[in-house]
Amino acid sequence: MIIDLLKKAKKVAVLTGAGISAESGVPTFRGEGGLWRNYNPQELATPEAFARDPGLVWEWYNWRREIIHPLEPNKGHKFIADLEKNTSDFTLITQNIDGLHQKAGSKNCVELHGNIWRVRCVREEKVFELSDVPLKDIPPVCECGSILRPDIVWFGESLDPEVMSIAYNAVKNCDFMMVVGTSAVVQPAASFPLIARQNGAYVVEINAEKTPISGMVDESLIGKAGEIFGKLKP
Ligand code: NAD
Q1: Digit-coded pLDDT (tens) for 189-228
Q2: 113 catalytically annotated
């Protein structure tokens, strides 16, 4: 049924969250195994935490970079990359910052929350890749002498309006949407599936547990994303 609808769909949008990378070994924020030294990510991934103690925030990102660096995409990432190859109008919107979708071959990928392999100068706003693992000097410093921060949208910060507009258009215009591995509590992504549905799309959620949107989509498949995708073939 899902596969038939996917084959017929002209415009497909996929929204992913931390759950899709869980089976690759990336800890989620919510659920098991997401804590670091008893700090809550919502207290570390903030501009206030960085202003107060950039070294501590960078230590946390260094830890996350070390975890993510050797990891490989799983069946879920690969299914989505294959789906893109077979769909003429396809947009992947991810809340993840781990780069695993791109590693799986996804091309048209809108990163709502940035990317852990990019850094940004706090003075000049210059963005570049810094993929050394682990970073030896913490916090890292720009050639201009200013401190560098992860190029990530932290709690309390606004999303890039250009990125938002691309994501919103894809969501509004798609005729099939898949939502995978997101707790659907972080806005604005949490409302994307509802916007898609209001505009006529068929919406399927795949998540390890029920979420606030489970009762508002066309189908909610509860289970591990990799296992569910393993049973579907694009
Ligand atoms: P979240 O941590 O809030 O929720 C993850 C959801 O995935 C939960 O509902 C959980 O039940 C589900 N889940 C766990 N394992 C699963 C599996 N194997 N298959 C399917 N579902 C599974 O994640 P979120 O909704 O993306 O939320 C928010 C923030 O977390 C984002 O801002 C994102 O940047 C950040 N984050 C990203 C990563 C990453 O890049 N991999 C990791 C942790 C957090």
Answers
A1: 899 999 999 999 999 999 999 999 999 999 999 999 999 9
A2: yes
- Residue 16's identity, in one-letter code, is T
Residues 6+ apart with CB under 8 A from 59: 138
Domain holding 59, by residue range, is 32-70+121-152
**What whole-number distance in Å separates Cα of residue 229 and Cα of residue 105?**
16
Counting ligand 1 atoms within 8 A of each CB, the residue from 16, 24, 28 with the most, and so the one to mutate, is 28
Q: 169 with 205, same domain?
A: yes
Ligand 1 atom closest to the Cα of residue 182 is 25
> In terms of Cα–Cα distance, which of 178, 185, 223, 225 is closest to 20?
225
- Sheet with 176-180, side-by-side order of all strands: 109-111, 89-94, 11-16, 176-180, 202-207, 219-222
- 96 CA closest ligand 1 atom index: 40
Residues 78, 169, single domain; the answer is: yes
User: Same structural domain for residues 176 and 224?
Assistant: yes
> pLDDT tens, position by position, for the chain (234 residues)?
899 999 999 999 999 999 999 999 998 877 655 566 677 888 899 999 999 999 999 999 999 999 999 999 999 999 999 999 999 999 999 999 999 999 999 999 999 999 999 999 999 999 999 989 989 899 999 999 999 999 999 999 999 999 999 999 999 999 999 999 999 988 898 999 999 999 999 999 999 999 999 999 999 999 999 999 988 865
How many angstroms does the Cα of residue 19 sit away from the middle of ligand 1?
4
